[in-house]
């Protein structure tokens, strides 16, 4: 039994020596490879100089700051040409960033339908608010005030 213990001890010592040798050689290789590579700060400076691309907003990100969650305001996808929706109803999920939306469709500034329809792609990114819808509301209220006077 003593001989078996001695053999096991010699094997453990040999394993430590081999492991130490490999560890030193890998450390040497690592130090040589890092000394020849270009400095890291210049690569990070190049990344910082690039402007970050902002995420586009989904419908609920756009309308969350409008009065009454944007009901009555016009919105459209950024890539649509002459198509927009006047928001009439929303069903907001608990997280406040997703949901469903209904609105009256406008094409080239003219109503395309009288009844509200469910808007598709409200959770996808790329929505914008059309500011002229607020101007029209402001103008119509002025006309009503003038007619009352």
Can you walk me through this structure?
Strands 1, 2, 3, 4, 5 and 6 form a six-stranded antiparallel beta sheet that branches. The protein is elongated and about 95 Å long. With 149 residues, the chain is of the alpha+beta class. The chain has two domains: 1-32; 59-131, SH3 type barrels (Roll), CATH 2.30.30. It has helices spanning 2-36, 40-49, 59-63, 132-148; strands at 74-77, 83-92, 99-107, 110-111, 117-118, 127-129. The chain contains four helices and six strands.
Please summarize what this structure is.
By secondary structure, the chain is α+β, with helices and mostly antiparallel strands. It has helices spanning 2-36, 40-49, 59-63, 132-148; strands at residues 74-77, 83-92, 99-107, 110-111, 117-118, 127-129. It is 45% helix and 20% strand.
Estimated structural class: alpha+beta
Radius of gyration, in Å, reads 34 Å
Classify the beta-strand content into a percent band. 15-25%
Strand-and-helix sequence, N→C? HHHEEEEEEH
> At the third CATH level, what is the topology name of the largest domain?
SH3 type barrels
* Mass-distribution shape: elongated
Number of helices in the DSSP assignment: 4
What share of residues is helical? 40-55%
């Amino acid at each position: 039994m003593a001989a078996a213990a001695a053999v096991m001890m010699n094997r453990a010592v040999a394993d430590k020596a081999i492991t130490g040798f490999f560890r030193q050689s890998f450390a040497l290789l690592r130090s040589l490879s890092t000394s020849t590579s270009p400095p890291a700060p210049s690569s990070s400076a190049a990344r910082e100089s690039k402007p970050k691309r902002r995420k586009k907003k989904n419908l609920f990100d756009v309308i969350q700051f409008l009065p009454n969650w944007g009901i009555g305001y016009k919105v459209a996808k950024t890539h649509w040409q002459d198509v927009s929706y006047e928001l009439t109803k929303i069903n907001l999920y608990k997280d406040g960033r997703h949901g469903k939306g209904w609105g009256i469709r406008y094409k080239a500034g003219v109503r395309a339908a009288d009844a509200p329809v469910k808007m598709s792609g409200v959770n996808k990114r790329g929505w914008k608010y059309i500011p002229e819808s607020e101007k029209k509301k402001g103008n119509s209220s002025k006309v009503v005030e003038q007619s009352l006077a």
